[in-house]
Amino acid sequence: MVEYTLSKQLMDRIKSTLEPEEQIEWLGKPTPSYFAHGGIGALVFGIPWTAFIIFCYIKILSHVGLHPALLYMLLPFIFGLLILSTPIWNRRNWTKNVYIITNKRAIRIYQGRSNRIIQSFYPKHLQDIYTKEHKNGLGDVIITCQTLRNSWFAKQYEPLGFLLLKEPKEIEDKLKQLAVKVAESSPA
User: Quick check: pTM over 0.85?
Assistant: First the structure.
């Protein structure tokens, strides 16, 4: 088991989430990457965008000099900087996830700035789990998929589970063992 340094506040929240007689068997965090889940797309768009805005700024300054109209160019430049910072914010958000496997269920906790999201996956949800491995060596253990509608009312599927893990197959095996163990111990 990999040891993680978790704040006392987060450990207290984890303990308050647990049911009576529920014990932690595995605790983990995702391995965040700057280019995980949309970071590359932001860079591919953000670099040319920001470069074009800087090029336009230089051209306007060389021909016109300082002009009040340059203030209108400031917003696209700030927009470009925000796009370029997307991978940093993605990484920061991924570090707020904690994954827990207990003797009764699997839990995903995300601590936001003003809220906390706790997703519990009981053994009945662990029947059709699978692993999705990425080229960078990380992987996802997908427990279920959530169906969402985008702004054009088209269906989109968001995987739910333990994402960006170093040893996804090992975690998948632990979850399958939990499902079998709880199914065997429950009265028929």
Answer: no
